[in-house]
UniProtKB/TrEMBL annotation:
<comment type="similarity">
    <text>Belongs to the SecA family.</text>
</comment>
<dbReference type="GO" id="GO:0005829">
    <property type="term" value="C:cytosol"/>
</dbReference>
<dbReference type="InterPro" id="IPR011115">
    <property type="entry name" value="SecA_DEAD"/>
</dbReference>
<dbReference type="GO" id="GO:0005886">
    <property type="term" value="C:plasma membrane"/>
</dbReference>
<dbReference type="InterPro" id="IPR014001">
    <property type="entry name" value="Helicase_ATP-bd"/>
</dbReference>
<keyword id="KW-0067">ATP-binding</keyword>
<keyword id="KW-0963">Cytoplasm</keyword>
<keyword id="KW-0811">Translocation</keyword>
<dbReference type="GO" id="GO:0017038">
    <property type="term" value="P:protein import"/>
</dbReference>
<dbReference type="Pfam" id="PF07517">
    <property type="entry name" value="SecA_DEAD"/>
</dbReference>
<dbReference type="InterPro" id="IPR026389">
    <property type="entry name" value="SecA_Actinobact-type"/>
</dbReference>
<feature type="binding site">
    <location>
        <position position="91"/>
    </location>
    <ligand>
        <name>ATP</name>
    </ligand>
</feature>
<keyword id="KW-0813">Transport</keyword>
<keyword id="KW-1003">Cell membrane</keyword>
<feature type="domain" description="Helicase ATP-binding">
    <location>
        <begin position="93"/>
        <end position="251"/>
    </location>
</feature>
<dbReference type="GO" id="GO:0005524">
    <property type="term" value="F:ATP binding"/>
</dbReference>
<dbReference type="InterPro" id="IPR011116">
    <property type="entry name" value="SecA_Wing/Scaffold"/>
</dbReference>
Amino acid sequence: MWNQSGKRVVGADVARVGEWIKRFLDKPGSVDLAPFQRIVAEAGELEGEVTRRADLRPAAVDPDWVGSADFCAVMREAARRALGQRPYDVQLVGMLAMLEGHVVQMATGEGKTLVGALTAAGFALRGARVHAVSVNDYLARRDAEWMGPLYETLGLTAGWIAETSTSEERGAAYACDVTYGAVSELGFDVLRDRLCTDPAELVVPAPEVALVDEADSVLVDEARVPLVLAGTADPGTALPEMAALVRRLSRGYHYTIDEEGRSVFLTPKGTDTVEKALGVDLYEHPGVVTQVNLALHAHALLTRDVDYIVRDGRVHLINTSRGRVAVLQRWPDGLQAAVEAKEHLPASETGEILDSLTVQSLIRRYPQVCGMTGTAIAVAEQLREFYDLRVAVIPPNRPCVRVDEPDRIFATLEDKERALLEEIETRHATGQPILVGTLDVAESERLAEALEAGGLSAAVLNAKNDAEEAQIIAKAGRRGAITVSTQMAGRGTDIRLGAGDPDEEQEVAALGGLYVIGTGRHESSRLDDQLRGRAGRQGDPGGSVFFVSGEDTLLTAYAPDQSLPAAGRDGVVRAADAAGLVAHAQRVAEGVNLEIHRNTWRYTRLQERQRAEVLERRDRVLHGDTGARALEQACPERYRELCETAGEETVERAARQIVLYHLDRCWTEHLGFLADLREGIHLRALGRLNPLDEFNREAVPAYRAMLDEVERRSKETFEKADVTRDLAEQGLKRPTATWTYLVQDNPFGSEWDRVLKRVAGALKRRKR
Ligand SMILES: Nc1ncnc2c1ncn2[C@@H]1O[C@H](COP(=O)(O)OP(=O)(O)OP(=O)(O)O)[C@@H](O)[C@H]1O
């Protein structure tokens, strides 16, 4: 990974050399661009001739034409005519790399929206249906509308879906050549289709091409997030008395928290206090232990304004890598109800999980995947491991001349914060616009207050006010602006120097452009790079620096046994190996997250295979007469008899309904079984058995048994049902209301890890 810290770029030439070295270092994971560059150079020669063509799209598109020099020249001309933007050579190179099925890395402000649209158009011209996977509804709509004229010029159609879209609107959007939609919406539609009993109700067409925006965030950071379809909603279990009880406990005395802040354990003293308060022996009441643990997790490990905010009487989770409210997300395992109880709120609804699908599995359904992002190289190995994708690093249109300063490292948080305020004050006095990236909402508010107290006013952009985002961002590049923001990995954050005013732009450029200050290194170097990338877009001048302290969570959690070299009197740590320690902590954090990803994937892989097989069966039943043939074979007498009285068509329709009902019902039960199995699998690990092997050993026969059960129940129903009457009234009642949500990544590591720690903690206690 190219380490930004310590890199000083002083001019365009150095930047070019830097790019070359970067390409060399990145070689193992990145795609060779030379063939694409040759095609684009050839396209340049065709430009004059193509501009004279009246109709750009050839009468019949030969799939091989897509990707040729003539095709590139046509796409360039189409963008110029439709949008008034002539794609740069690097944008065409990016398009060709995506058409080959790669993930392209292009820096902030390089025009990825246009590259994505050109690529989508290319796939569509080849005759494929494209789903442009966005990160939110706003961007899905914005990009579809913004790029609409380009598609039109090429004789193609584009549509978008959002949370509020009706089923007709969805149907119309999916009928387009290119459909833009947030990853969650695309997934929810797939899940909802899962319950259809009439082929006419299906909304999502067969997956063909997924073009993923912010590919690292969707394909890696959010890959583990399960999208859930639930039915028959019930209120969750509220635990106000547990919340009240744990509120009285003190850290260190009643409970301890592990170094990474992922687990919390009751001390023997804490166990006594809880047992006395509840009047039960915890060891004999595992259900109560779970409730206490959930309440304790909510109390001690989840912090308001860091992990979530409370707005309009509800808990809203914060997506820490985006610094925004994670719409529709919930925590798993009753943790949601525990946090609601902690905040004195009524428990929100839960429901029986009818089906679920991880983002990774959703994307892997598509035979062709490509993507784009500002930071892909750092996750090149994961993209290859989990999706078999390669990364193409596209050079910027104009070399980046941003100055990335080495980290400023301090012994204590206090020293760091003092120096940070001084730096902001000094820079601000020159008029240079400053963007301060904080690690969480609480910090952004604290900093804005401290600045205010010092007579400086800052615009604050965080998960609490993301609706005003565009306006705040529009002003962030103005002379003298101070903007304090939580992580803004989200697209659409284009900070223009001087906010579009040419005179002010010159003035701000002369002051050094936008200066980005990070108040701490993130757990992932990609997030650091994304923050830096806000400055120096399209060859603008700019600078960036991170302030780090030995008391930052990154260091205390991931390098707890190592301490920073001694600081000078001013609190600054100058020794060269300090930067190495910070980088080490970040690598450990990245390693831990990768391991969690791998572990989750290992467990979900089998479930996903089973799911795919069940869906295949379901499809055969839904679209054909497989259900009827199976029942005819299982109960020939009954089948013949019913055909005679009710007619073959009615019997076939009823058979379809019966088999689909039991298949869906049994799958839901099987999912519940797998969840319980996984929850309990830790006990095998204590018996020195490999939990994953054990999980698979049980999950496979359970799946076969489930299929037999579908057959048995279908036969039983068929034997006694009155096929001429409504089957729902005869017990085949489907959930009347379904709802969808995402399960927020377990903040405490893998389920297994957490439960194992809990059990080990309990055993340790008992041994004393
Ligand atoms: N070929 C072009 N000619 C002129 N302007 C362009 C061209 N391509 C893109 N732009 C403009 O550059 C700006 C940035 O584009 P866009 O928002 O797509 O960048 P991005 O790479 O997606 O950045 P981010 O990572 O912040 O989302 C937009 O205002 C867009 O109109």
